[in-house]
Amino acid sequence: MRIVIAEDDMLLREGVALLLRAEALDVVATADGPEAFLEAVDAHRPDVAIVDVRMPPTHTDEGIKAAVEARRRLPGLAVLVLSAYVEQAFATELLAGGTGGLGYLLKERVGRVEQFLDALHRVAEGGTAIDPDVVAQLLTRSRPDSALERLTARERDVLALMAEGLGNTAIAERLFVTEGAVHKHIRNIFAKLDLAPTDRADRRVTAVLRYLEETQQRV
Prior knowledge:
Elements: E1 2-6, H1 10-22, E2 26-31, H2 34-44, E3 48-52, H3 62-73, E4 78-83, H4 88-94, E5 102-106, H5 113-124, E6 128-130, H6 132-140, H7 153-164, H8 168-175, H9 179-192, H10 201-217
Parallel strand pairs: 1-2, 1-3, 3-4, 4-5, 5-6
Helix pairs in contact: 2-3, 6-7, 7-9, 7-10, 8-9
Protein name: Response regulator transcription factor
Pfam families: GerE, Response_reg
Keywords: DNA-binding, Phosphoprotein, Transcription, Transcription regulation
């Protein structure tokens, strides 16, 4: 796995690079800004890019814009975005294209090495990894009269784990239920949200988050 890291905080940038190299992953380049990041993508054609949301010069959304441009230049590039804060708009914007290979994590997750590496590998394999805190805020921002209110408490638990990018087996293990029960809950969720079910995890997560984005915009 060839990785490029774009992060303006030198300590975090070098720390992530050291962590990944210790895991025998190939960090081919690091960058401290969007221009240097895009140059590294062009030069090294990595499999995965780890990108900070806020980078120079304005420290607003340069990272998101650079990530979108990198995927335009290198179709199929997996992107794991890091942010210091919960910013729901960035999470839903990332998934707007309806494709996999995308992740959004809070920077504090980097210190939880197993979770961070799991998200990185999931994204590299074409899946989706959304920070649990972001998912929680998306769910709580739904309107009282939205379709989400049709879901039972257990179905909301399953939906949140789906949005994080977990598959049926992982959801069953997390909730201490059978895979058959998870499958039934997912069928109910899609029916109540008027979403067509699919066997591909990235598509189902994208569909769910698109729905959450629509409800968020109406709040």
